[in-house]
Amino acid sequence: MTTDLHVVQGNETVAPGIYRLSVGPSSPSAAVPAAVQPGQFHMLKTVAPEPLLPRPISIHEVTGDVLSFLYEVKGAGTRNLAALKPGDPLRVTGPLGRGFDVDALSGRILLVAGGIGIAPFRYLARALAEAGRTQVTLAAGFRSRPYGIEDFQPCVRDVRIATEDGSEGVKGRVTSLYSPRDFDVVVACGPVPMMRAVQQGCAEAGTRGILSMEARMACGVGLCLGCTIRTTTGMRRVCTDGPVFPGEEVFFDAHA
Amino acid sequence: MTTDLHVVQGNETVAPGIYRLSVGPSSPSAAVPAAVQPGQFHMLKTVAPEPLLPRPISIHEVTGDVLSFLYEVKGAGTRNLAALKPGDPLRVTGPLGRGFDVDALSGRILLVAGGIGIAPFRYLARALAEAGRTQVTLAAGFRSRPYGIEDFQPCVRDVRIATEDGSEGVKGRVTSLYSPRDFDVVVACGPVPMMRAVQQGCAEAGTRGILSMEARMACGVGLCLGCTIRTTTGMRRVCTDGPVFPGEEVFFDAHA
Amino acid sequence: MPTPDTAPDLTVELCGLTLSNPVIAASGCFGFGEEILPFYHPSLLGGISTKGLTLRPRQGNGGIRLHETRAGLMNSIGLQNPGVAAFVQTILPRIRGLTPCLIANVGGHEIADFVEAVGMVAAADVDMIELNISCPNIKCGGQAFGNRAGDAASVVRAVRPVCGKPLMVKLSPNADDLVGVALACEEAGADALSLVNTFNALAIDVHARRAVFDNVTAGLSGPAILPIALRMTRDVARAVKIPVVGMGGIETGEDVAAFIMAGARAVQVGTAGLVRPDALPVIVEELARFMAAEGIANLAQIRGIV
Amino acid sequence: MPTPDTAPDLTVELCGLTLSNPVIAASGCFGFGEEILPFYHPSLLGGISTKGLTLRPRQGNGGIRLHETRAGLMNSIGLQNPGVAAFVQTILPRIRGLTPCLIANVGGHEIADFVEAVGMVAAADVDMIELNISCPNIKCGGQAFGNRAGDAASVVRAVRPVCGKPLMVKLSPNADDLVGVALACEEAGADALSLVNTFNALAIDVHARRAVFDNVTAGLSGPAILPIALRMTRDVARAVKIPVVGMGGIETGEDVAAFIMAGARAVQVGTAGLVRPDALPVIVEELARFMAAEGIANLAQIRGIV
Ligand SMILES: Cc1cc2nc3c(=O)[nH]c(=O)nc-3n(C[C@H](O)[C@H](O)[C@H](O)COP(=O)(O)OP(=O)(O)OC[C@H]3O[C@@H](n4cnc5c(N)ncnc54)[C@H](O)[C@@H]3O)c2cc1C
Ligand SMILES: Cc1cc2nc3c(=O)[nH]c(=O)nc-3n(C[C@H](O)[C@H](O)[C@H](O)COP(=O)(O)OP(=O)(O)OC[C@H]3O[C@@H](n4cnc5c(N)ncnc54)[C@H](O)[C@@H]3O)c2cc1C
Ligand SMILES: Cc1cc2nc3c(=O)[nH]c(=O)nc-3n(C[C@H](O)[C@H](O)[C@H](O)COP(=O)(O)O)c2cc1C
Ligand SMILES: Cc1cc2nc3c(=O)[nH]c(=O)nc-3n(C[C@H](O)[C@H](O)[C@H](O)COP(=O)(O)O)c2cc1C
Ligand code: FES
Ligand code: FES
After folding, report:
1. C51 touching B, CB under 8 A?
2. The total number of structural domains that make up chain D
3. How many Cβ contacts (< 8 angstroms) between chains A and D?
4. Which one, out of A105, C191, D133, D226, has a CA that is 20 to 30 A from the CA of B43?
5. Which of D197, D220, D251 maximizes ligand 4 atoms within 8 Å of its Cβ, making it the mutation to test the pocket?
6. Angle separating helix axes D253-261 and D226-239, nearest 10 degrees
7. Can D135 be counted among the known catalytic residues?
C-alpha cells in the first residue's frame, strides 16, 4: 500500500466514454509495487486541483509493475483521467480494500457485471484460471454496445451478453442471462439496483452471492467513515472492510 | 472586444520559464477579430477551474487572425498557460485597455523594457516602423540571459541590452543604458521599481514618459475596480483607463 | 403542465417589478452596467445592482485590492464610487435605459449618511434600493451594521420614510445571528432581503510576513462560499415572508436552480461575471435549458421545495 | 539567529506537552491513527485528535455522507464511533504508543452525557481532551452548544471538574458571536481552544430536487474555507490568553505558517489528509523548508505577527 506519482503509459478509448489507462512506476528505483488482489482498487488523482478528492478505480489488469484500469467517464474526476496523456504524472494510492478471496471461490462460478462493473473481472478471471477454476461463466449486461469483454476466453468458458437496447446479445437485463440455481457462487459488480436484484435471486436460490460494492469515498483508506454501508455486522467501510462483501450481509435500504 | 474560445496553435519555450503562445479563432466562421492596438492586452484563461480568474497578457504580435503572446511563468495561472498544447482551447477576451497612441509617439523614441516587459514592444516597434518612425531605440534589461529581443531590427535602429549578472550586454540596470535627455519620448514597460526609476529620470530630464502599468486584475474589462492605481486624475483602472498612462500622472506610492 | 416544446417561463416578480429572468448582476461586480456593452446588452438580465454608492465620493482602499484563494476571490475595494449626487446627475441618465430593473446599491458608515443618500437616490429614476449594511458602523466601534439585529433594524427604520421605492436590505454573512437580523429588517420595513455579501476573511503573505490587504481582512466571494451562502439563503427564506434574493458563488444555471429551490425569489451573480464577461447571459440560457430538460414550467414550481 | 544550516526548531508547547511539530491530525479525518500506518508512522506528527467519541456507540448517519464542492468537502458522518467505553478498553491500548500527544475528541448532545464521557476518557491514558461543542444540543432545541456563549460555557463548566487532563474546546464557526464564545470558554476553564469545526452548509441535487444529505445541511471543510478560518483564528487568538489551535483548509507548510502568523499555537489538518494519505508529514517537511528558507529559527518568531 503506497501513495506516489506514477507515470501514464497509455490511455485509450475502448468504447464511447470508456477508457483503458495504464500506469507504471515513476522511476526504475521506485518501490516494488505491492501484490494486488483481484477486486482491490486504487485511488487515482491527477495533478489538477479540482476535484479535490481522488477517485476509486478497480484494478483491471496487472502486468509486471504496470497497472491497468478500465473506467467510464462520469463527472469531473473521470474527465480529468480521460485527459491524461502518456508521460503525465498520476497520483496512485493502493492497492486498497479487501478484494475477492480466490481461494474461497470454487465450483460453478458466475461473474455478473453491470456496465463498467466489468472492470475488476478481467483480473479476477485470470486469477481464477491460474488457481485452476475451470467452471467460470461471465454474464455481462450493458445499456448498449458492450465493452471490456475481450480476452476473457480461455479464462472463462462461457461469456453471455445482454444489452438493454438489444444492440448485441440478449435484449434485456443481465439477470435474465442466468439462473442462480445453476451456480455455486455468484460474484457481482455493477450499479446498486443490479446488485440488489442479483442478491435477491441468489437468496431465493440459496446460492452464495459475493458483491463488490460502490460508495462515494473521500480517503479510500479507512480514515473518514464517509463510505460506509449498513450491513448485518453494522456500518462497514466499503474502502477497507470491502469493497467485496458477502451478499447476505448487505442491507440495500441504506442506499440513497 | 470579444470573449470566446480560441485554439492554441503553438506554445514554445523561448528561454527558461518564458513561452511564446499563439492562438487562432476556433472556427473559420468565428467573428472577425477586432483590430488590436499595440499595448493592449487580452485576458487568458484555460479550461482548468483553478485559478478562478483569467490572466492579463499583452499582445506580442498579430499575424492575420493569429494572436501571439510572450509570457513568463510566475504562478498557477501562467503555469496553466505553459501546459497548453496545440489544439487545446483557451478563452481569450479582448483586445482590452488603451494601448500606445502610435500617432502621438514621434521624434527620438526610446522603448525601455524590464524583463518580460519586453512583451508588448515587438508589436509596438512594428507599428512605429509602419507609421514611419525611424528613430526608435530599444533598451532592454534582464536579470540574466535576454529573451524576446530578436526581430526588432529593422524596426528599431538600436538595441541595447543590460543584464544584472553581466551574462550579456552591459552589466547593470536598464536605466544605465540611456540618458533620457537624448530622447523625445520614453516608453517603459516592466516591474514597478523600474518604472518608478524610468519616470524619475524622465521627469528630471524633462522628457515625456509613457508607462504601461501592471496591476492585479479580476475582470480586465472595468467592472470590479480591483486594478486601480492612484494618479493625478484620481483612482484609475489599469484595465480600461490604461494600461498605458502618461508617466507624470502616476503616483508610485500607491503600490504595495 | 407545459408541453415539451413550450419554452419555460423564467419571469420573476420582485416587489412589484416583473423581471424577465431571475439573474441580477451583483453590486460591485458590474460597474454601472456600461462596461459590459461590448459583450452583450444588460437587458438580457433580470436586473442590475449598481456599484455601492455612498453619500460622498470615495477613492476606495489603497494597496492590493484583489487576492485569489482556492475557488474564491477576496476583495477590498473600499466602496470606491463617485457619490450619489454624481450618480444621479451624470451616470443615471446614461444607464437608465439599460435595464427595466435598476437597483441602486447604497452603503454608508453613519445612519445620517444612509438616510441622505437613500433619499437622494430613491427620488431619482431607479427601480429599487439595495441597502448594503455590511459596512462598518463608525458610531458603533466599527462593527458592521449588519452584524447585529438592533443596528440593522435602526438603519432600515431610519431610511424607510425617505425611501419611496422598494427597499431591499443586503445581509452580511458575518452577522451574529443571521436569521435574527433578517427578521429585524423585515419588521423594520424592508420589502425584500438579499444575501450574502462577502465573508470576512484573511489572507497572509507568508514571505512578507504581513496581511495581503492593508485593511488586514477583506471580503471573500466566489464558488468557495456557495454551500454556506445556499444554506444561509434557505435559513432566511424560511424565516421571513418578504422575498429573498440569494447569491454567493453562483457559476451555472443549475446553481441558480439550487438557490431557487432553497427559497430564493431571484439571485445575483458577482464573481462569475468577473471570471468571464458573458457569464451572466450564459447562466440565464443554462437555467432555461435545465428547466426545459426537467419539465419545469416556471420557477414557482421549484421555489422553496428543499 | 540561526545560521543557515541550523535546522529550524518546529517544536510547540501545548498545555504542558511538547509537540515535535505543530501539525496535529484533525478529528474525524484520521480514524484512531491506525489506518495510516501503511503510509507513515503518526509519531511524525505533532499529535492526533481521535474521531469524535460519544458516551454511547453511534452508527452515524444514513444516506450520502460525503459531497464535494468547489475546493471543499461536505460531510455528514453523524459521529459514528464505538463509544467511550469501547475506546478506552479496546482501542486506546492499541493506539497509545502511536503518538506522544493523543487528544481524545469528545462530542455529545446533552450535558450529562458530555460529563460522563469526558470523565471516562480523561481518567484513561490520553494526553488531552478536545471538547467538540458543535453538536446540536438536544435540550436547547437543536442549536449547537457552540453557537451561543452561554451554552458553550455551561458545558465547559460542567466537564471541567471531571477532566483532570488539559481541556481544549473546539469552537464552531457557526457561532453567533465567535469571540464571545471563545471568551466564555476561557472563562469557564478551558486550557486551550481549537477552531474551526466545519461550516454549516447546504448542497442540493437539482435533478432530484432535494438536498444531497438526508439531514439537509452538512459540514463544509477543505481549502474553500481557509480564508475564513484564518480570519477567525486571528480574531480568537487576539481575544484570549490561552493557546489556540487553528485549522480549516490547510494544505501546505505555508498554510501552517499563515495560521501561526495569525496567532495559532499549533494547527490541525483534516481534509488534506483525505485527499492524499501522506499529506500531513509532507506539510511538516514543507514547513521546515519554508522556515529554513526564510531564516525562521522557531515558530515563536512568527507567531501572532499579523
Ligand atoms: C471500490 C470502487 C471501485 C470502482 N471501480 C471503478 C472502475 O474500475 N471503473 C469505473 O469507471 N468506475 C469505478 N468506480 C466508480 C468511480 O469511482 C466513480 O464513477 C467515480 O468516482 C466518479 O467520479 P467523477 O468525478 O467522474 O464523477 P462525479 O461527478 O463525482 O459523480 C458522477 C456521478 O457518479 C456518482 N458517484 C460519485 N462517486 C461515486 C462512487 N464512488 N461510486 C458510485 N457512484 C459515484 C455521483 O453521485 C454522480 O451521480 C469504482 C467505485 C468504487 C467505490
Ligand atoms: C496589462 C497587463 C499586461 C501584462 N502582460 C504580460 C505579458 O505580456 N507577459 C507576461 O508574462 N506577463 C504579463 N503581465 C503580468 C501577468 O498578468 C502576471 O504575471 C500573471 O497574472 C501572474 O499570474 P500567475 O497565476 O502566473 O501568478 P500568481 O500566482 O497570480 O502571482 C505570482 C506573482 O505575481 C504577482 N502578480 C499576480 N498578478 C499580477 C499582475 N496582474 N501584475 C503583476 N503582478 C502580478 C503576484 O502578486 C505574485 O507575486 C501583464 C499584466 C498586466 C496587468
Ligand atoms: C470586487 C467586488 C466588489 C463588490 N462590491 C460590492 C458593493 O459595492 N456593494 C455590495 O453590496 N456588495 C459588493 N460586493 C459583493 C457582491 O455583490 C456579492 O454579494 C458577493 O460577491 C457574493 O456573490 P458572488 O460570489 O457571486 O460574487 C462586491 C464583490 C466583489 C467581488
Ligand atoms: C469526514 C470528516 C469528519 C469529521 N469528524 C469530526 C469529528 O468527529 N469531531 C470533530 O470535532 N470534528 C470533525 N471534523 C472536523 C475536522 O476535525 C475539522 O475541524 C474540519 O474538517 C476543518 O479542517 P480541514 O479543512 O482541514 O478539514 C470532521 C471533518 C471531516 C471532513
Ligand atoms: S472513504 Fe474514507 S473511510 Fe472509506
Ligand atoms: S480588473 Fe476589474 S476593473 Fe480592472
Report:
1. yes
2. 1
3. 95
4. D226
5. D197
6. 30
7. yes
Pocket test for ligand 1, best of A74, A84, A192, A227 (most atoms within 8 A of CB): A74
Q: Is residue D73 part of a domain?
A: no
CATH 2.40.30.10 location in chain A: 2-96
Q: From CA A53, how far away is CA A57, in angstroms rounded?
A: 13
How far away is chain A from the Cα of B126, in angstroms, using its nearest Cα? 39
Query: What residues in A contact B48, CB-CB < 8 Å?
Result: 48-50
- Residue B142: strand pairing partners: B163
pLDDT in tens, B4-62: 999 999 999 999 999 999 999 988 766 666 789 999 999 999 999 999 999 999 999 99
Three-class secondary structure of residue C8 per DSSP: coil
**At how many degrees (to 10) do helices C178-187 and C149-159 cross?**
30
What is the grid cell recorded at B198? 524610468
The alpha carbon of residue B144 and the mean position of all alpha carbons in its chain are separated, in whole angstroms, by 19
Cα atoms in the 13 Å half-sphere on the side-chain side of D9: 13
Please check whether residue D71 lies inside any domain of the structure: no
Among protein residues, the one whose CA lies closest to atom 14 of ligand 4: D28
The pLDDT of residue C31 is 97
Could you give the CA distance from residue A118 to residue C302 in angstroms, rounded to a whole number? 38
Residue D48 corresponds to which amino acid? I
Closest by Cα among D161, D84, D67 to D126? D84
At C260, the amino acid letter reads: I
Q: Which of C76, C274, C280 to mutate to test the interface with B (most CBs of B within 10 A)?
A: C274
The CATH code of the domain that includes C127 is 3.20.20.70
Directed axis angle between helix C111-122 and helix C149-159, to 10°? 40
pLDDT-derived band at B196 (thresholds 50, 70, 90) equals very high
| Adjacent-strand bridge partners of C216 | C213
Q: Which residue type is seen at C90?
A: T
For residue range D188-236, what is the model confidence (pLDDT) as tens digits? Answer: 999 999 999 999 999 999 999 999 999 999 999 999 999 999 999 999 9
In a domain, C35, yes or no: yes
Query: Using 50, 70 and 90 to split pLDDT, how confident is the model at A30?
Result: low
Among D29, D101, D135, D185, the active-site one is D135
The answer to the question of residue C67 being in a domain is no
**Contact between chains at A219 and D70 (C-beta distance less than 8 A):** no
Distance CA A1, CA B51 (A): 32
Packing angle, helices D178-187 and D226-239, rounded to 10: 40
Ligand 2 in reach of B72 Cβ (< 6 A): yes
Average pLDDT estimate for D13-31: 98
* Owning domain of residue C236: 12-60+82-199+223-301
pLDDT along chain C (306 residues), means of 10: 72 98 98 97 98 96 95 96 97 97 96 96 98 81 87 96 97 95 98 97 98 96 98 98 98 98 98 98 98 98 98
Q: Are C188 and C151 in contact (CB under 8 A)?
A: no
Nearest to D29 among A1, A91, A223 (CB): A223
Nearest ligand for residue C67 CA: 2
| pLDDT for A153 | 86
- Residue B50 at interface with chain A, using a CB cutoff of 8 Å: yes
Closest alpha carbon within chain B to A80: B48
User: pTM of this prediction?
Assistant: 0.96
| Domain A102-249: assigned CATH number | 3.40.50.80
pLDDT tops 50 at residue A212: yes
State whether residue D97 is helix, strand or coil.
Answer: helix
Using CB atoms, pick whichever of D203, D207, D210 lies closest to residue C294: D207
Q: Does the pLDDT value for residue A256 go beyond 90?
A: no
* CB atoms inside a 10 Å sphere around CB A18: 20
Cα B76 to averaged position of ligand 4 atoms, centre (Å): 28
| ipTM of the prediction | 0.96
- Topology (CATH) of B2-96: Elongation Factor Tu (Ef-tu); domain 3 (2.40.30)
